[in-house]
Amino acid sequence: MALPPTAAQRRVIDAADPVTGRLRGTDTQLAALVKRGLAFRHPRPPHDHFLTPAGHRLREPAPPAAGPTEPAAPATAPATDGGVFAARVGGAEEAGTPSGPARAREVRSAWQGLLELRRMTNPDGAADRPCGWERSHLVRAAALALEAAGHRPAGPDADGYRVRATPQPEAVAVYAPDAEALRAYTATLETAGWQAGEYTQPRTRERYVLASPRRA
C-alpha cells in the first residue's frame, strides 16, 4: 500500500493550481510525490511537476454512492480550501456565487489552463480532446466547457444548464431549460472534445444530454 503524503507534501498538493495541477515545492518534496504516484515531471522544458489524477483526488471530498440520476440531485463542483476557482454546475446551491467581468476572466483563464493541461498530458499533445484530469472530474470538466463557451448555469432565479453525475462510467447528464438550449449544449460539448447525444429520462420524460470524454 502506498504511503500517505507527509504534512509538508500535503501542503504542496493543496497549493497546486486548481485546474492544471502545477506544483511548487522543493526537489525532495516533488520527487517524493512522483514516487508515490501523486505527481509527474513533464518531459519537456521547463520540466515542471503536475498532479496525477490520484493527486487531484486527494483534494476532493469522497464521492457519494452511485445511484439513479435525477434532475434535482446535487452535484456541485466543490472548491478547495482557499476559495479557488470552481466550475459552476448549475443549481440553487450556487446562489450568491460572484459573476460579472471578474468571473468571465476566471473562466477564460481556467479554460486556457485546461487546454494547456491537455497538451501536456495527452500522449500525442492533442488539445482537442479531454485529458485524464477531466475523466476524473467529469462534472466539473463538462461544466467548465459549457461556461467557457458562454452558456449560463441554472440558478435560483435563472434558467440554464445543470450538469449532474450518472451511474454510467465516464458520463455526465446535462439538463437544459428548453430544446434549443439542449442542442446548443450538445454542440458545445462536441466542440470541446466530448461525445454527446440527446436522451429522455424514462420516469420524468425530461430530455437531457448524455456526454462522455472522447478518447480519439
Give the gist of this structure.
This protein has 7 helices and 6 strands.
Proportion of residues in β-strands? 5-15%
> For the CA atoms, what is the radius of gyration?
18 Å
Alpha-beta classification? alpha+beta
What is the subunit arrangement here? single chain
State the distance separating the first and last CA atoms: 33 Å
Helix count equals 7
**Mean pLDDT over all positions:** 82
Shape: elongated
Order of helices and strands: HHEEHHHHEEHEE
As residue ranges, the low-confidence spans are: 62-83
- Work out the count of structural domains: 2
Largest sheet: 4 strands, antiparallel
Count the E strands. 6
Strand order of the largest sheet: 3-4-6-5
What is the helix fraction of residues, given as a range? 25-40%
Region (Disordered): 38-82
Biased composition (Low complexity): 67-80
Molecular structure report:
This protein is α+β, with helices and mostly antiparallel strands and 216 residues long. The protein has two domains: 7-57, no CATH class; 92-213, no CATH class. 33% of the residues lie in helices and 13% in strands. The protein has seven helices and six strands. A four-stranded antiparallel beta sheet has the order 3-4-6-5, with helices on one face. A two-stranded antiparallel sheet has the order 1-2. It is elongated and about 55 Å long. Residues 62-83 have low confidence and may be disordered. Residues 67-80 have a biased composition (Low complexity). Residues 38-82 are annotated as: Disordered.
